[in-house]
Specification:
The protein is of the alpha/beta class and 230 residues long. It is built from eight helices and seven strands, in the order ααβααβααββαββαβ. Strand 6, helix 8 and strand 7 form a beta-alpha-beta unit. The structure holds zinc ion (2 copies).
Amino acid sequence: MNSSLNIMHGIFPHHCLLCGAIDSEEMLCPACHAGLPWHLDLHCPRCALPTTQGEICGLCLNAPPAFDRTIAVMRYEFPLDCLIQELKYRHQLGLVPLLGSMLAKHIKPLSCCPDVLVAMPLHPSRLRERGFNQAVELAKIVAGQLELPLLAHGAERIRATPPQVGLPWKERAKSVRGAFSCSIDLQGKHIAILDDVMTTGTSLNELALALRKRGAAEISAWVVARTLPD
Ligand SMILES: [Zn+2]
Ligand SMILES: [Zn+2]
């Protein structure tokens, strides 16, 4: 794939956006679709990090996160990382249906049935800068395809946090502490939090804590991509 993605799908609907193959009915040709970094089958059910037998990992045993499970479609690796960066930083919103559908298709057979979806909130200042929240856009697709309600307001990022990229993992945890608030009563509810990428899980954990404070009984994390440590 070259650096400037062929996001011309609307103009040339039969070009694969990764390799440019002409015979594609979908946004990706079958070969590029098959070659995506699909997540490994054996992973910790709680945080989606790889484990040898698919058991709960040591990190989750020692310090269980505030969410109960993580469903990740792919590993945050090439070329998916490029697609997600195109979406977020070059405003290629044409990628939302592709990535959102992948998440919905992955979740559908798992019969994970939350009461409501919540998209990972952006701080208002970041939202103004970017113009959209990719997690909300993905969540709209997933909510539509799985016929689940999406909580549009009520969970907020009340504190701007520095960009997490480049911060050591421990620093990330500190920087997002108390960053979220929730104003909706979620007593007894199963909530699925949607995000594009789960890196360390610290943001998801903090948001899950805020939802727990409002009574959430069960929390699932649904992400397109999971970053795996080297
Ligand atoms: Zn292709
Ligand atoms: Zn784990």
